[in-house]
Write a structure and sequence with these properties.
alpha/beta, eight-stranded parallel beta barrel, 8 strands, disordered C terminus
Length: 324
């Protein structure tokens, strides 16, 4: 027979910390497991590195080559993970050629943006030229099938190349800004994606209204900008672009980081022209990894298609020759 104390002890519930998992109700165990799973899932995504944005854009200046080499161009762009092309427009290339190229590119998930601009388009007296061009793109799109249309336009206006910039920088910025406002208005009426190629140092200049940097003002006006952050180092390319990327993060706009592949007299450190393809791609990957930290990063913009194609073709030829 059990003693009274033993009986009482047997009737006592376990202490607070002594409940066994097996004694928990099924619904409690299920809920606990679900909570643990969700917390682990959240922790995983918090610690996981973001997937590197490998998208690329490129400039194609000699539009005449699309009349005979569209298939070759589009195939190369697709291989290089290009999803945006800035294609120069000029009267000597037929509308039919542009329509065909745009359709072929779009079939490979590549959007084509009409490209134009001159240094003196920043001047008030040249404003109309830019506006007329935007109106031409709008008219082209109205007459083309959806898959044949330009997705947007890009302005390449670089007034700092002209002598007047050195003498009247603020006056030129004021005229340039007023022109941009009119072009943006014209483009928005045609539902065009508006972008501009800009130098990296605009964050060191004041906006026309004096309320921000000129780079922030530009980003606010356009849907996107392509920064000519031309260096032969991925880290330096990012460093020259990070202020604009941060501004675009705040404004919910997009930024391409530019890479130069062509010959330049301004210094070897500005271009990958004499660099091996492996070195170029490694540095571009570094820039992309750093850029991916910003949700505004649209990818790298390679300047330009013709030299890029030749560089890759020569590299492949060299490899084939060495393997013989």
């Amino acid at each position: 027979m059990l003693k009274k104390d033993s009986v009482n002890a047997a009737k006592k519930p376990p202490s607070k910390g002594g409940y066994a998992w097996n004694s928990w109700p099924a619904w409690v165990k299920g809920s606990s497991l679900l909570i643990i799973f969700v917390l682990l899932l959240i922790l995983y995504f918090m610690l996981k590195s973001p997937e590197v944005n490998e998208n690329k854009a490129t400039w194609l200046w000699d539009a005449s080559i699309i009349e005979e080499r569209t298939d070759e161009i589009v195939m190369f762009l697709a291989e290089q993970k290009v999803n945006t092309v800035f294609l120069q427009t000029k009267e000597s290339v037929s509308d039919e050629a542009y329509r065909h190229f745009n359709a072929e590119a779009q079939a490979h998930d590549i959007s084509v943006h009409a490209l134009n601009g001159h240094a003196d388009w920043a001047y008030t007296e040249k404003r109309e030229e830019g506006t007329v061009w935007v109106e031409w793109v709008k008219k082209f799109n109205q007459e083309a099938a959806p898959e044949e249309q330009f997705a947007g336009v890009q302005f390449d206006v670089e007034p700092y190349q002209l002598r007047r910039w050195e003498q009247e920088e603020q006056a030129v910025i004021a005229e340039w800004s007023a022109n941009i406002e009119e072009w943006i208005q014209a483009g928005s009426e045609g539902n065009l994606y508006m972008s501009a190629a800009v130098p990296f140092w605009l964050d060191k200049r004041e906006s026309p209204d004096g309320k921000s940097t000129l780079s922030r003002w530009m980003i606010d006006q356009f849907d996107a900008i392509a920064i000519m952050a031309y260096r032969d180092s991925g880290q330096q390319m990012y460093d020259l672009s990070k202020e604009e990327l941060a501004e675009a993060d705040e404004l919910d706009k997009k930024v391409w980081i530019g890479a130069e592949l062509g010959h330049t007299e301004e210094g070897e450190h500005l271009t990958f022209y004499r660099k091996a393809v492996t070195n170029m791609e490694s540095e571009m990957e570094t820039a992309a990894e750093l850029g991916t930290k910003h949700h505004s990063f649209a990818g790298l913009a390679v300047h330009h298609y013709e030299v890029w194609y030749e560089k890759m073709k020569d590299d492949v030829s060299l490899v084939r020759k060495e393997n013989k």
